[in-house]
Amino acid sequence: MDGPMRPRSASLVDFQFGVVATETIEDTLLHLAQQNEQAVQEASGRLGSFREPRIVEFVFLLSEQWCLEKSVSYQAVEILERFMVKQAENICRQATIQPRDKRESQNWRALKQQLVNKFTLRLVSCVQLASKLSFQNKIISNITVLNFLQALGYLHTKEELLESELDVLKSLNFQINLPTPLAYVEMLLEVLGYNGCLVPAMRLHGTCLTLLDLVYLLHEPIYESLLRASIENSTPSQLQGEKFISVKEDFMLLAVGIIAASAFIQNHECWSQVVGHLQSITGIALASIAEFSYAILTHSVGANTPGRQQSIPPHLAARALKTVASSNT
After folding, report:
1. Is residue 205 over pLDDT 80?
2. How many independent structural domains does the chain possess?
3. Which residues constitute the domain of residue 98?
4. Does residue 73 belong to any structural domain of this protein?
5. Helix H segments across 195-236?
6. Same domain for 147 and 89
7. Which of 26, 140, 181, 221 is such that its CA lies 20 to 30 A from the CA of 245?
8. At a CB cut-off of 8 Å and minimum separation 6, what does 116 contact?
9. SS percent in the chain: helix, strand, coil, step 5
10. How far is CA 265 from the centre of its chain?
11. Contact call for residues 305 and 210 (beta carbons, < 8 A)
């Protein structure tokens, strides 16, 4: 692991659908649904997201450089985002406390500056922690991390790396085994295979990875267009935006949108059948699935994700608009 590594995309060689027992699939799907419902409920009152496209791209490219699977890169982004939210909440809390002396009033500024100075270190720590959660990946060694940081001009010791990981762990109360949208996508694809979906799960899986990369990179624009579509207003209010935060944490909704958009790309004639299956599996309204898949499709036109060149032809996006319109009538 300490020698030079060649970048690669997520390996799908050993990935298979249709080999898991139906009882296991049912139990796992139920667990994911319960987990998703809890996450949506807990999202209310959060400050929002800190998913800057350049930072997401940095994580994706670093994960590829270190030969990590896609699930690790998504989990690293989730860990980093929740860590940043916690840090922002702490800074805001310090800023609103009535200071007893001048030194105390400067505390929140010191916390902010410390976060800025150590951001790259914390980002790398999130990737390293995510790699330790995956049984399919070798853990990224401290030597590899130190060499990478040194190449960027950051000089750190092994002790500082350990302290950085511990800081992330403590901030998140050691709860870093976070769910990712990919788990929901792959489980729903498994169910679709058993339900007789006309589009093979493996074909959908590759396109889903591409679109999931895209959603992570264009997170805010995609969800903003979804918000405008849901309220039928091009200028949502601040209150509407705050209420919509819980939608951003709905990984089940994101998964069905990803799969529906992927099915449209692979075989638009089978799109209605796939969406119908997704609706019966999850209970999500057809109109919601159509709106989300359209938001993804329209933002995919001409878009390139790291390490991939696939984009959606404009004529398919235009046809998707007509399909969504007919689904809403």
Report:
1. yes
2. 2
3. 49-170
4. yes
5. 201-217, 219-231
6. yes
7. 26
8. none
9. 70, 0, 30
10. 21
11. yes
